[in-house]
User: Fold this.
Amino acid sequence: MAELRQFKLPDVGEGLTEGEILSWLVAVGDSVTVNQPLCEVETAKAAVELPSPFAGTVTELLFDAGTTVDVGAPIITIDVGGGSDAAPAEDAPTGSGLIGETNANGRTAVLVGYGPRSTEAKRRPRRGQPVAAAQVTAPQVLPEADHSPAHTPLLATAPDARVKPVRHGGLEAARAAEAAAARRPADPAASASSATAGRGALRPLAKPPVRKYAKELGIDLTTVRGTGEGGVITRADVDAALAPPAEPQGAAAGDTRIPIKGVRKHTAAAMVASAFTAPHVTEFLTVDVTRTMKLRERLATRPELAGVKVSPLLFVAKALLLAAERHPMVNSSWDEAAQEIVVHGAVNLGIAAATPRGLIVPNVKDAGRLSLAELAGALTELTETARAGKTQPQDMTGGTITITNVGVFGVDTGTPILNPGESAILAFGAVRAMPWVHKGKVVPRQVTTLALSFDHRIVDGELGSRFLADVGALLHDPGTALAF
Assistant:
């Protein structure tokens, strides 16, 4: 006997309210096991895979790939068959219900971003209120390794909804809903709103022939306003949806319009919030880094640094960490609600990274405790993971100070915007051979420009200047690190 369960888009515990289904990893009719990845979803922070909380057969995919879905909305229906396999992930026996195990397809079933876990998944109650979208982004670029001219664990399950067996993909349920709507007093506007508003709401009201007609034309019925009795979508409504939209006023030929969503949407929100919340001050310092570049060449041949890229960014990061140890107030946050300044005990060093999905800022946790070789390895792994689009959500939360590497594009410097929740960000410009006064003579030297933006509520001008001067001094003469 069929027993259908619906898996809802989970609240991943990151302050998110929606996600975009990038791709389905299963199809209608496929058999799935507990923790088998069902789909890939892009949140405001990263792309994650959602594992199945049930074992059974897929009967319906409720949203197409490319659709943005509200947290809590059902996204897939699975026939668990009423047997023991119907148990959700927390009740699954060892070997089939553990997050982090590798299934028959060779995939590790986790909510990407929180790493393999060897414990059973646990449910938690649904939150009563939606939470605000988290701020995650910060300035500008993916750090390359060279300037040379050449939180809370995610759930394995989400609350499920039991539904009565239906045939033909739920057509009988749709007819029943349409008949019930027809018996109520007609209110087309309200009915259309209830049918289409909210990406987790009821399916649009339409008869099976109209649904088939819309599917053949590639029309998403959730975007169509029904004009029939009770807000039912008619064939004429589908035809109307085919009409090309009117050109926005002022649009020019060849213009392309890109939807603002996902990482880009939250980047914009975070940058606006940061720019108009924290009073930014930016200071600049041009530094002769010839000695650091020579040290880099020597250290690159050391066996302990084999296998990692010894980049100029590595030395900038190390200089920043040493300066932050001397000036801990720079590594702090402003808590408006508590009216407190939080001075962080560890430096979670963020590196602004531009990816195909938009700007992200992964960070190296407690970077100050790492040796130079360990820091080099962490930065190499961070940048390679970001380029591959596999950065974990946990690696993009909890940052305390950030470096943005604008020099990789040949840019001298910029005025970076603070990553929300942090009090300082350092822009590292291109390293160039320039005429420089050295020992009383004008000679070619390797020179770069640093720009430090800081929150003037926390960091006074004197503190910001001393911090930037210390970073510059360490890059000018790395030997001064012995005095820190």
DSSP finds nine helices and 20 strands in the chain. The first strand starts at residue 4 and ends at 8. The mean pLDDT is 78. The CA atoms of residues 293 and 306 lie 18 Å apart.
